[in-house]
Write a sequence for this structure.
């Protein structure tokens, strides 16, 4: 499984840059496979409508296939590794 713990040490501006470089669907799927602390850090850097969308998606798709979640997490981690 991918490790997105580094998000906790990034500045808000770096998180926002990272969010602009990844696919929306990967963010949605990936938020199902991270800790509440990481999810909250990401959500705090989203626009108000996007925050609601992510929260709704996480609630509605809690039974999503783990392979899909892991694939999205892998892509998110790869993009995160590009952030210095």
């Amino acid at each position: 499984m991918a490790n997105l713990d580094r998000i906790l040490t990034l500045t808000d501006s770096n998180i926002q840059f990272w969010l602009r470089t990844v696919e929306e669907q990967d963010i949605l799927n990936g938020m199902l496979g991270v800790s509440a602390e990481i999810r909250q850090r990401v959500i705090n850097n989203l626009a108000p409508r996007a925050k609601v969308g992510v929260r709704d998606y996480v609630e509605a798709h809690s039974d999503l296939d783990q392979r899909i979640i892991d694939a999205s997490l892998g892509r998110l981690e790869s993009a995160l590794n590009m952030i210095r």
